[in-house]
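User: Can you predict the 3D structure of O-antigen ligase? Sequence below.
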Amino acid sequence: MNAGVNPLSSQANSAQPLFLKLDRSAALLGKWSVYAYAAFPIVNRAISISFLRAYANSWSTILLCLMALVGLYQYKRSPKLSAFAWSKFGGLFILYCVALFFSQLGLPHVAFDGLSMNIEYLLFALLLPFVIQEKDIPKMIFTSVVVSILLGFDGVFQYITKVPIPSGWVDVGEHVRTRVFSVYGSPAELAANMELMIPVIAGLFCLDKNRRRRILYMIGEFCCLATLLFTYDRGAWLGLALGLLLISLFYDRRLLVLLIILCAILFFLPPIHHRLADLLSPTYWIQSAKGGRIMRWETAFNRMSRNPLFGVGLGQYGGAIASAYGYSIYSDNYYAKILGETGLVGLLLFSAMHIAIIREVIQTVVRKAQGRQKYLALGGLAGLVALLVHAFFENLFEYAPTETVYFLISGLLILWGRTLDSQKTDLRNQEDKIPKES
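Assistant: Sure. Here are the predicted structure tokens for O-antigen ligase:
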């Protein structure tokens, strides 16, 4: 790697560092726990096929406990360390879910599983400010990008080799080569990772001055875009398009022309055109109302209407837990799942939390970024918005790798934004270096 100054970092010799150094053992424990979360889909798959497969469902919980110990240790040493501004909304949602849990003690197993599903990876997000050191932020962003690029390579490979897929993944009368899913096992969840990370990779390509990494970003961007298309997930396509559209309208309208041209070209590719044209077919909407997404969304409203404020209870509607215990099928809309399960109060708190995350990213990162830093800031914001839009069509936040990458990228962006307070110069001409791991 070329020597130089990392464009993601603030001035190296800041008189007032934002993060106090942890003791070496605690620092390493916290850092590598976050790295494991950054590589969640790959680590999870490796554990599930190895001699450690007995821990496939618990390794992330073990890491979460370790992170909690590190965070508590660091907070005791430096009580002035500040949590995310959105943490108060996350805390209220957690407290509300805990209250629902105690109201459902007649079904303790269902309630506990539902509670865990809703808050485990939210707790991971809340711990990030207390376990991540400033110097590790660029490396963690880079690691997250590399993981997504590897998934993109795998997606292209699956498409080339025509990996077999269940018939239920294709609409009646539709003919596609295959739908890629990589180690996720789900085209929708792989697409969620791609739609979030594609703008981030593009932002790093514009920011990073290192030639070898720029080549990696360029090749990786192509593979991730191809993989996103090969998932044939319309919700992800719509999410990314809307995310980029909003960024174009509010921050850089020059991107609007490029976005329109790109969408027009992609729309007339036969497989994509056929997939999107199905949405305009009366047959699609009739089938959707009888047994598809529209029916499932109506069911969520009907379930919630029995107890509008508090819903039917944790784990009893719309998701993996409800399906496993025989209460309901998937809602195919995470907001509908939250509405049916936790009622209007739960949906309000959940929505307020994510609005607060987006607002903090805008205030802490987008408004402070200078020069080429702006590309990464806007790319991250576009990816987060894309995933939130996509969640209207899939139960994205029930899948651990998707929930993890969303909270990790939003957290890393906000923590990076805090370091920009001491940034006084435009870094567009500086070359960076991703420091080697110790």
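Residues 334-366 form the longest helix (33 residues). The chain has one domain: 24-420.
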